[in-house]
Amino acid sequence: MRLDFEDHRADPSGWARKLGVSEAAVSLYLASDVIDLHVDSFIWQRIFGYDLTKRHGTGLFGARFYSQVDFPRALEAGLTGATWIITTNPLRGARGRAEAFSRNLARLQEIFARVAEQFAIVRSAAEYRAARSAGKHAAFLGIQGGNALDENLDALDRITDDLILRVTLVHLSSSRIGTTSSPMKTEETGLTDFGRDYVRRLDEKRIFVDLAHISRRGFFDAVAVHDRSLPLIVTHTGVTGVHRHWRNLDDEQLRAIADTGGTIGVMYQSSFLGEPYWGGRATAVVEHLHHIVKTVGEDHASLGSDFDGAITPPRDLATCLELPRLVELMLDRGFSERAIGKILGENFLRVVAAMRG
Q1: 3-state SS, residue 14
Q2: Which DSSP helix (H) or strand (E) runs through 208?
Q3: How far apart are CA 76 and CA 8, in angstroms?
Q4: Cα-to-chain-centroid distance, residue 284
Q5: Which of 296, 268, 292, 288 is nearest to 280 (CA)?
């Protein structure tokens, strides 16, 4: 199957006019690696049969909650890579979660296999480069909620062939691994002993430990037991230096990630960024990126949209098709072209290369 899409490389000035941005912003964007650290579209395929290979509009709610990304729009947006997520249902038992993960991984692989002319599942920076040389979108795979595989430590052996790049330790509910940052938690226990061993096993398997969603105490528990020779990541978050929120990281946490050589992806949920819940402005994303750069440097900021993760993104960044607007806003904010290229994708590629080559 080959997907049809509008290739904006043929007319960058036309795309710039359509988005209301400068041709310089679009040209810089199109010349860059553009990698999203967290895309959650697969969950809608699982729940409602949302066909990732079909081009969709903005859905029932105007690109709120879902219908923000699909494969044709990812290609049209010039999204050169992304981490496509398998999210865990915490209501299943441990064995049921593991079995569901295996089924969902096979299903996601099958979907990508149907569009193999234009998409490739990749496991390393080298494989990303090979996919891009072939003109393909490079798809990393990740798990949201380590309790997908928490029956015992050997459950992680269900991950074969290095197919999973990263595991977000906890999601919106606590588990036997540790405590979520969500207000839904009943107590703050940080990482459990099992959770500490889980981090060590992920390190052994060269799977990224993703510290999005975890409580502050659990965050630093993970930092303490993590192999210091490997980078840590936070794939989709905001920062308290711009807007104080239970979902966001403080400056000490930013420094802890940067000290390992890792990177922090800024997400697009408007209310977490300090904007109106039903959709603020993309300038808020840039303010959070700017705070990361100001605090720990331009080598440690990335994009982690959480598109299709039931979020309400900025109204001028409602889908992946508006991404060049971020470049225009970063240029207006005084970011250098070099820093912008790093944020769009180079920082993440550097971190992946440090972990897996």
Answers
A1: helix
A2: strand 208-210
A3: 7
A4: 18
A5: 268
Number of other CB atoms surrounding residue 312 within 10 Å: 22
pLDDT at residue 188 in the model:
80
**pLDDT averages per 10-residue partition of the chain, 357 residues:** 94 96 98 98 95 96 95 98 96 94 97 98 98 98 97 94 97 93 81 97 97 97 97 98 96 98 98 93 98 98 98 97 98 98 98 97
pLDDT in tens, 218-273: 999 999 999 999 999 999 999 999 999 999 999 999 999 999 999 999 999 999 99
Separation between Cα atoms, residue 85 and residue 44, nearest integer Å = 11
Compute how many other C-beta atoms are within 10 angstroms of the C-beta atom of residue 190. 18
Is the whole model's pTM more than 0.90, yes or no? yes
User: For 8-356, which CATH class?
Assistant: alpha beta
The Cα–Cα gap between 52 and 70 comes to: 5
Rounded (10°) angle between helices 283-296 and 251-259: 60
The CA distance from 233 to 256, in Å, is: 10
> From the CB of residue 3, how many other CB atoms can be counted at a distance below 10 Å?
19
- Where along the chain do its domains lie? 8-356
CA distance 175 to 213: 12
